[in-house]
Each structure stands twice: as structure tokens, then as C-alpha cells.
Amino acid sequence: MEIDKAIKESDDVRLKTKYNNAVYVIQRALALYSVEEVALSFNGGKDSTVLLHLIRASYYLHVAGKNPSVRDSEDTEIPFPIRTIYFENPTVFPEINSFTYETASTYKLQMDIIRLDFKSGLEALLKANPIRAIFLGVRIGDPTAVGQEQFSPSSPGWPPFMRVNPVLDWSYRDVWAFLLACKVPYCSLYDRGYTSIGSIHDTVPNALLCRSESSSSEDKFRPAYLLSDGRLERAGRAKKLISQSSSVICNGLRSEDVNLQSMFTASVIAVGDEILFGTVEDRMGSILCRKLHLIGWAVAHIAVTRNDIDSVAEEVERQKSRNDMVFIYGGVGPLPSDVTVAGVAKAFGVRMAPDEEFEEYLRHLIGEKCTGHRNEMAQLPEGITELWHHEKLSVPLIKCQNVIILTATNIDELDQEWNCLIELMKSNGLVAMTEPFVLKRLSTTLSDVEAAQPLSEMCFEFPDLFIGGYRESRKDPLIISFKGKDKERISAAAEALCNKFHPGAFSEID
After folding, report:
1. Any bridge partners for residue 326, and if so which?
2. What's phi and psi for 255, nearest 5 deg?
3. Order of strands, edge to edge, in the sheet holding 403-406?
4. Taking the alpha carbons of 353, 359, 361, 367 in that order, is the dihedral positive or negative?
5. Could you report the per-residue pLDDT of 223-246, keeping only the tens digit for each?
């Protein structure tokens, strides 16, 4: 069989291991269910193409194990009897459709073409056929992979069947290593820079594969297998960060101002008992707030929580649904008190699972001591984690949906991580760079009582601005701050306040 032969002749030890493990899962399924009770879900993408050929090889080995004469004869062609399901959709790329039908013809697949949505199509298929298990090309990192094992029953509310995931632990690199080693056909879109294919509405070639020197539209992008960092596989999927649509509370007032409604908000969470005990001073929180204001984001909430999984999970769960982005730092490492990553996983309701790529980074960083508690550092929230690598960072940034886990422990490390993060988010189209906040401060010797009523009036007159007052000490002057994105509005507010008092009552602070 050409697939099994190609893998055996390969020098790629990792690929051989992945192949053998996948074949074991498939053969286990074939031992549990009859051929009539299993099906393959095929969508024309690279993952399902790999799965098809893994099943072809596994079925060959399955038959050869029962009939040794089959293995001895290289010319023996074994029909592929496993039912193949293809959900045809009007938003799919024409190249995907063509490749799917060509594949079905080449390998003589028994293909059921379903033109209903996935759930309705499955219900109709399972009602008409005795299917009990379906092979899926799901990999860790896919949105549908959360909580899945190699054998996972279908979710509640879905028709009952066993989901079989032979390539669940395969990486982007593993997929291409297999396709190239076995020299099997794949969809032509991958040779034109597409790395992860969805619908025609949300998929474009991966910009990281763009040939800057090419003037030809046909040859503008390099093939998908040349993407050096598999974590950026989905960079060609259209992503937009949408601000919360709810109204914003400013100066204690609920404002419906359109500028505030479109403002992006972030929450900052520090994890550390040492901060709560007063053992160390947290300076990173205030620095992070300033950095967010410089890109035009409003910080809606800042908190410090204990080194406790439940405490972290509760805080993350509250903030991730209220803000566009959550930044969390502290409690990342191999110590018993380093529970941040596990807390984030619990907030999203997913388990912690080993991540081979992250483990490779850790091995490079701490050598072969990556065992025991240190090896547990390579466990990340399953199915929701993206690793963002930057050449200036020894360890990639961890992004779990709209939660960014920072590993910085001091201001210098935070500066470096932040600069790399902004660069990566820009390249992935995930950050909205808006006008930075503008600050104007006035100093006065007026008492708090004298300033209170006029300031309340100012908040009503300028609800789009953040107006506040503070003293560095009881004996120091009162400082009135105006913060917003419109310089003219800020100047108008400052002038309006000054007009409420005698000349010289306020002086501007640089």
C-alpha cells in the first residue's frame, strides 16, 4: 500500500509516530464497529485529506491482518468500502468542490452529498443508515476541538454517534509532512497561499506567504507548506474585534454617546498573593493601563486576585464577557502557586492539555529538565489557545480567545512583550488602533467642597470625557484631570470649569 510504504521509508521519526498512533485509533474503531457502521466526514481540506489516506492505509492493514496474502501482493487493489460524507455548501470555494469530486472519483469513494446544514444532514443520514461512528479531521486548536478526545460521543442535542478523531494531536507541520511524504493530491488553493480554508466570505491567502518581489497575481503567494510557524495557520481567516454594544458609564452617568459606544475596552488582572499581602508593589498594572490608553483603549477594570484557580477563573469569567480584551499576568510558571493558566482554562470550561509546540519552546529554554512540574507548564487550555511567536521573545505569547496571558515579571519584560504583542496583533488584524487618549490637568488651591458642585455640573455638560479630581496628599493642591480623544472638547471643558471661578483659580500642569 503506497501510504504505508511512504511513511516507512520516511526519515521523519515524529511523522512515523503520529502515523502509527493515528492508525491505531482507526484500527481500534474498525475493531469496535463494522464497516457499515462507520463513515468519514470529508470536506476537501488538508486535514480531511490526511484523514482519508490514513483510513485507506488503516483499512488496508486491517484487511491484510486477516488475510496475509493481501500484504504479500503489491498489485492487490482493495476497494474502499467506508461511506464518505460531503456537506456541499454554496459558500464553499469552487476549487474545494472540484477537488472533492475528483478525489471521490480517483479513490472510488461511496460519497453521500448532503446539502443541508451539518446537524440536519447528520440526523437524516443516521436515520437512513446504521452509522454509529464518524471519522473527523479535527485537530487541537480547531474551534470544534474543545473538550474532545480521540473517541468522543456527540454533544447533547445532537444525533447520537461516536466522534473518532485520529489526528487530534497533529500539528500544522505534521499535516504537511504527511501530505508531502506520501505525495498525495490536495486542493490547489494551498499552493496559492491559503493555509486554512473556510468559506469564500471569510478566507483569504495568508499574508505571511506573500511574495513581495512578485508582480504576477498568479504567483503572488508561496504554497501553504512553506508557512514556517504553524501557529499562524489561521491568519488568513477574516477576524474582527467587535466592541461591546452596550452603553458606557462615564463619570457615574450612563452615556449613549456614539464615540463612547465605539470605544474598545480592556480589563487588567494581576495574580499574586504577594501583592495582596503588600510584600511587593504592583507597578505593571499602571504601566499596562498607560499602554492601552496610548492605543486608544479604555481600561474598564483592574483587579488583583489570589494565587487560587477558582479566584482566577471567577475574575476572568466576569471580565472576558464584559470587555473586548482581558490582560492577565503573574502566576505563570512551574511553582504550585502558578495557577493562572489553569484558572483561564476553568473560566472557559475547558481542560488543560499538553501542547507539543509549547513544550519544544520550554525544552529549548530550560533543557531536558522539562519534566515533572516544569513539564506541566506545557499544558495549555485545550482548543482555545493560540501561541504567538515573535523572534524577540524566548517564549511565545499565550492567547485564549480574548484573554492574553502575559509572562512578564517586571517593567522591562512588559515593554518588550507589549511591543511584540502589538506587532503581532497588527499583522493578524486583531487590534483596533484608535486615537490615543489626551490628558489635560489643572491645579488649584480650592477645597474639595468648593470644587465638588461645579465638577458635577461639568460631568453633565461633557459626558463624553473622563473628568476626575485627586490630591497626591491632603496638603497638596487639588488636581482636576480631563481625559478623552477630542482635544477641542477637552480644551472647552477646561475653559468652562475655569469660567466658573475667579481668574487665576486654576493653573495648567504640563
Report:
1. 267, 403
2. -105, 140
3. 298-305, 265-271, 325-329, 403-406, 397-400, 385-388
4. positive
5. 999 988 776 787 776 543 434 433
